[in-house]
Amino acid sequence: xxxxxxxxxxxxxxxxxxxxxxxxxxxxxxxxxxxxxxxxxxxxxxxxxxxxxxxxxxxxxxxxxxxxxxxxxxxxxxxxxxxxxxxxxxxxxxxxxxxxxxxxxxxxxxxxxxxxxxxxxxxxxxxxxxxxxxxxxxxxxxxxxxxxxxxxxxxxxxxxxxxxxxxxxxxx
Length: 172
Hints:
Elements: H1 7-34, E1 35-43, E2 46-51, E3 55-60, E4 74-80, E5 83-89, H2 90-93, E6 106-111, E7 117-122, E8 124-132, E9 136-137, E10 146-152, E11 155-160, H3 162-165
Parallel strand pairs: 2-11, 5-7
Antiparallel strand pairs: 1-2, 1-8, 3-6, 4-5, 6-7, 9-10, 10-11
């Protein structure tokens, strides 16, 4: 009789195993939820990042139509499936010397203020990083358009404050 297991004990043990598995999955989801996804781009040989949730799409550079009397950082506009998108040259916006786009250059289309889309012309898109909130240093001192710094493999990646990057109306 000692070899028989009470059906209630067996059911209790199964529920305990299920509960432990569910707890491990919940912890893994919570850890993944605490991580931030950042799209890394190269601008003037420096690494910058944008929060992935603000990125709508990445497109190859196409003809950019110049627009008169716009701030210097605005390269012009493109038509993307019938939608007119303003393109900001990130080299100009960050005070670097502008260059002609290369094969590696991309336009990162982002969700801007009030649901408007904007395109950011960057030298290249390099990778997507997954970082914890603790990995971001808020007191960057990097400049008004940088929200934080992320230490990544012996170099820093500057997390751009997209709202400030898109505030270009007063600049000429």
